[in-house]
Design brief:
heterotrimer, A alpha+beta (124), B alpha/beta (479), C alpha/beta (445), A: alpha+beta, OB fold (Dihydrolipoamide Acetyltransferase, E2P), three-stranded antiparallel beta sheet, 10 strands, B: Aspartate Aminotransferase, domain 1, 35% helix, globular
Chain lengths: 124, 479, 445
């Protein structure tokens, strides 16, 4: 059950046919205190790297892009009342949505945890 | 401090309403009557006056503090302008639109026309409309004019180009007019990367939007070329006049090649900022765009009188009447008072003051672009960041020392940006006092940075929890 | 001259610090070929000469004409305290409150203003004001498009024609469909409005009272809109809300309007302010600035601009609107006006408007050949049918020093003889009686 990361700081965790999506600790830290998560509609279909959702902090607003293509099957309702969950646990309890119907080959375009850590170093 | 609602006592009455001199009417139909009176405050006039007088004293303002907000042009608001504007309080705008009404409002109509001519001459444009009610509103109007121009030629253009240093209202206004945005990065010399711009320009681009001097306070020597590149692709060039205070009498956007411009009367022309408005954003155009201007227009007849003419081929109305007339009257007064020479002096002194700031502060604060600035200069607090001090900490420290902070975190392409625009109305004394405190802040940042993190401590409230405000969304007093 | 204080000596010192020989040198980055081709403006003058010019213009501004006209802008009393308090320099020479610690005056005042608007309109969340009434209706339409994700609106033609023109301009840029619904005489055609709402409709937009002065119950219209997943937008006249049902009470989703009648002078067209208020669940979709309550690190209550992630300086081209300013000072005047009159005073003022208008309505209707076109209740405006084209009558009466009303011929086909008359609390019985006399003479002599 490994995580893959995108250049835009999203992560995706694969569990059988379900892909869970969120933003990385790095992204959450950069945004500052999250004030709102614009969750996607259940049933929404997106292509890899399309705009999937939105996230806002006091000083910034960012789009969240789909790490893989697919259909949104579930959203993390807890984020409606407690968006701060993303700050507290961006890569675990602060997951944003789940998707189905993705193509595993698309994961090839993403980074694993080690590659992402290197990528972050390069950004500094 | 309590809210006015918390000072209310049920049954207290305020100012006396006029006495009725007509018979009582039959009751208003009960099915349409409001179920309870609107919950306005119930306070005595003395309490009202105390409350708002004391509330006002919690503000910094140009009249009380040096206010060097870059990009805002916080110059002195001349009191004679207030006197002049107040003269028109009882003039009803609808009179101008009634049959036979024009003859009764020749004074205001002559002012609208006169201001349009003044602004056209100052900016080098052919015609001006005063209808837009604010700068951003002017930008939207300008882009709508550009859209109408292309539509009339059967052109289908999808994009508007902006530099990444542009004010957020530029892409937002273009989006409201239905365009998609192409953003061009800033080159090392401090302005839009010319090669990237050239590559992005094509026949699908409707316009490029430029600010000159740019939001870094730098005059772009390639500005005419930028307009030319647009024209060669059949696109138009839009000028955001927010920084006009730097170049009056020296450069006119119309001469440079811009097709559409807007000016901010509440910046360059000294009308008061009012705590965030009202403003006024007149738009100027070259001949080719005159047909698309909003309706109606004030025209001067052969006999010297003024009329109101419908302009049916234009984009319609962007506001109900002729614009924010009270603000326009103040700006007209300012321009008339100063005259041509006065405006030239304004720009010269504005540029002198900003360069003085830059020269005295560059020893302690990083200059992202080491070029002569115009009416504002941008520093980065990157040196201070090494001691854990951010631009916002410097800003809050300034508040404790009685200065309104400069603009921080804009433009977006400079890290920890601090943008200082002193304006021409500030004396060397005032600027020296501010410079001393900025230098002091830099020293404190090195020696005792924690002091800066706690600032401000002398104001009624300290740093406020903005996260809590955004999450709680408490926007009115309940109960 | 231009309020530039520095002496030649000080200028020399500053140039020395900069390392430049002259002020002109500071402009050397500007190529010669870009220098201004002309800068021909008359010479400046002193305050004395200026005020002579300004007084002359103001004297020819129609202030002496008795206004029985509205068109969205109304001649109401302004208590002396409003000018006095809004004239405090700390309020009017301050900037947008981006540094909240030194702007609590403006921020708290705007929070109180937002509260006043919510209470006036019966809504739950207001912003800190928009430019004016017309752009407020347009912004409400854009808001409804965002909330519903739909692409069309239904617009009642009894909404102020000037406002409708502004709305059309905003929506045309975004290729939004606008279905205009004609009035039934001087009433909004509620049946037709309801029938026009489909699953494609983002919002129905009506005015309360409407442009002809008629007041209606919009509760059924709200219900119908909601049935189809659309929003009800009501553009309302603030003073009328001192008497008539509020948009909130009737089930509206967004209330907007022109705030001028609350403490702002006529001033030949501005500045005024627009207001917008909505239900709590739509707050993220509100355009413009919003002030929120919070605390500082010591637990002291304070106010800040909030939900700024909606705005242009963060979201840029994806912002809810391009709007950068609010009409802060005008909104402040509105707030002080409301607080000056107070809860009961505001209701009394509204009632007085109604009574003056009822008196005038009966008096004018008694003139031969004149009838009232409104089928039901009116507040302080009503529409008369004259036996002659109204435009002629208005022109003639202007020459006698009275603006008798707004003739509808410029805005509605087939209404050449119709005249909308406005009667506020400032119209004395003597003025009303005099107008009746003038009308009679104009119609029958």
């Amino acid at each position: 059950m490994s995580k893959y990361f995108t250049k835009e700081h999203e992560w995706v965790k694969i569990d059988g046919s379900t892909a869970t999506v969120g933003i990385s600790e790095h992204a959450a830290h950069e945004l500052g205190d999250i004030t709102f998560v614009e969750l996607p509609q259940i049933g929404k279909s997106v292509k890899q790297f399309d705009t999937l959702a939105g996230i806002e902090s006091v000083k910034a607003a960012s789009d969240i892009y789909a790490p893989v293509s697919g259909k949104v099957s579930a959203v993390n309702g807890k984020l409606e009342d407690a968006p701060e969950l993303v700050n507290e646990s961006a890569e675990d309890a602060g997951w944003i949505c789940q998707m189905e119907g993705f193509d595993a080959a698309e994961l090839g375009a993403l980074m694993d945890a080690a590659a992402y850590a290197e990528y972050l170093k390069g950004l500094e | 401090m309590e809210l006015i609602y918390e000072k209310s006592v049920a049954g207290r009455t305020g100012v006396r309403t006029p006495i009725s001199d007509v018979p009582k009417a039959r009751p208003f139909p009960s099915a349409l009557v409001r179920s309870d009176t609107a919950g306005f405050p119930e306070v005595s006039e003395l309490d009202l006056v105390r409350h708002y007088t004391n509330l006002s004293r919690r503000n910094f303002s140009v009249d009380t503090n040096f206010y060097p907000l870059g990009s805002c042009t916080m110059k002195y608001n001349a009191k004679v302008m207030e006197q002049a504007g107040a003269l028109f309080a009882e003039c009803h705008p609808m009179l101008a639109l009634l049959p036979g009404g024009e003859a009764l409002v020749q004074g205001p109509l002559s002012l609208v026309h006169g201001l349009e001519q003044q602004l056209a001459e100052i900016t080098g444009m052919d015609e001006v409309t005063t209808q837009p009610l604010a700068g951003a509103h002017g930008e939207m109007t300008g882009i709508m004019l550009i859209a109408a121009y292309h539509k009339a030629r059967g052109e289908k253009r999808k994009y508007v180009i902006v530099p990444d240093s542009s004010h957020g209202t530029n892409p937002a206004s273009a989006a409201m007019a239905g365009y998609e945005i192409i953003t061009i990065p800033t080159a090392p010399y401090g302005d839009m990367d010319l090669d990237a711009y050239r590559a992005a320009m094509n026949s699908e681009v409707a316009a490029v939007m430029m600010t000159c001097p740019n939001t870094l306070g730098i005059f772009n020597p390639h500005i005419a070329e930028i307009c030319e590149i647009a024209h060669q692709a059949g696109a138009l060039a839009y000028y955001d006049g927010a920084n006009l205070n730097a170049i009056m009498g020296k450069v006119r956007p119309g001469d440079v090649g811009f097709d559409v411009i807007h000016v901010n009367l509440h910046k360059t022309f000294g009308t008061p900022h009012g705590g965030g408005g009202p403003g006024s954003g007149p738009v100027g155009v070259k001949k080719g765009l005159i047909p698309y201007l909003p309706t109606p227009r004030v025209v001067k007849n052969a006999d010297g009188s003024f009329g109101v003419e419908a302009h049916p081929e234009g984009i319609g109305r962007v506001s109900d009447f002729f614009g924010n007339f009270g603000i326009m009257a103040r700006a007209f007064a300012y321009i008339t008072l100063l005259g041509g020479e006065g405006l030239i002096e304004v720009s010269e002194q504005a540029v002198l003051n900003a360069n003085y700031m830059m020269a005295r502060l560059k020893g302690e604060y990083e200059l992202p672009f080491e070029v002569t600035c115009m009416h504002e200069c941008v520093f980065s607090a990157s040196r201070q960041l090494k001691d854990g001090v951010h631009a916002i900490d410097i800003a809050k420290y300034l508040i404790d020392r009685g200065f309104h902070p400069p603009t921080v975190y804009f433009p977006l392409n400079v890290k920890e940006a601090i943008m200082i625009e002193p304006t021409e109305t500030e004396s060397k004394q005032t600027m020296d006092a501010f410079i001393d405190v900025m230098l002091e802040a830099a020293r404190v940042a090195r020696e005792t940075p924690d002091l800066l993190h706690e600032a401000p401590v002398s104001t009624p409230v300290g740093r406020l929890d903005e996260t809590r405000a955004a999450r709680a969304q408490q926007v009115c007093c309940e109960g | 001259m231009g309020y530039c204080p520095n002496t030649p000596e000080e200028i020399r010192e500053m140039l020395g610090a900069i390392g430049a020989g002259s002020v002109e040198e500071l402009f050397s980055a500007i190529p010669k070929e870009l220098r201004a081709k002309s800068f021909e403006l008359p010479a400046g003058m002193s305050e004395f000469e200026l005020m002579r010019i300004m007084r002359e213009k103001a004297a020819a501004g129609g202030a002496e004409i008795v206004p029985f006209i509205g068109g969205g802008i109304y001649d109401h009393i302004i208590p002396a305290a409003v000018d006095h308090l809004a004239g405090r320099a700390e309020f009017y020479t301050a900037y947008t409150p981006y540094q909240p610690e030194c702007s609590q005056g403006t921020l708290q005042a705007l929070f109180e203003y937002q509260t006043a608007i919510c209470r006036l309109t019966g809504m739950e969340a207001s912003n800190a004001s928009l430019y004016d009434g017309g752009t407020a209706v347009a912004e409400a339409a854009l808001m409804a498009l965002r909330v519903t994700g739909r692409h069309a609106v239904v617009l009642d033609a009894s909404v102020n024609p000037l406002h409708r023109e502004v709305v059309s301009g905003y929506l045309a840029s975004l290729s939004t469909g606008v279905v205009e619904v004609a009035p039934k005489g001087c009433e909004s055609d509620l049946d037709l409005l309801m029938a026009s709402v489909t699953e494609e409709t983002a919002a129905v937009i009506v005015q309360h009272p409407n442009f002809f002065g008629s007041v209606a119950d919009l509760t059924a219209l709200a219900a119908k809109a909601h049935e189809k997943g659309a929003l009800l937008i009501v553009s309302c006249y603030p003073i009328a809300l001192g008497l008539v049902k509020s948009p909130g009470e009737m089930g509206a989703d967004i209330a907007v309007g022109e705030g001028q009648s609350l403490g702002n002078p006529l001033s030949f067209g501005g500045p005024y302010f627009g207001f917008i208020a909505t239900r709590k669940r739509f707050i993220r979709n509100l355009p413009g600035r919003i002030v929120g309550e919070t605390v500082d690190q010591k637990g002291r209550r304070g106010y800040v601009l909030t939900l700024q992630a909606r705005e242009q300086h963060i979201k840029r081209h994806k912002a809810t609107s391009n709007i950068c300013s609010n009409q802060s000072l005008c909104a402040l005047r509105g707030l002080i006006f409301a607080a000056s009159l107070g809860r009961q005073g505001f209701a009394d003022l509204a009632l007085l408007n109604y009574e003056k208008a009822e008196y005038a309505k009966a008096l004018f209707a008694a003139i031969d050949g004149v009838s009232v076109l409104n089928a039901g209740a009116t507040f302080n405006e009503f529409t008369l049918a004259l036996p002659k084209p109204a435009a002629q009558v208005v022109a003639r009466l202007l020459a006698s020093g009275v603006a008798a009303g707004v003739p509808l011929s410029a805005y509605y086909a087939g209404k050449e003889n119709a005249l909308v008359v406005t009667v506020t609390e400032k119209r004395t019985k003597a003025e009303i009686d005099a107008l009746a006399g003038l009308l009679k003479e104009a119609l029958w002599n």
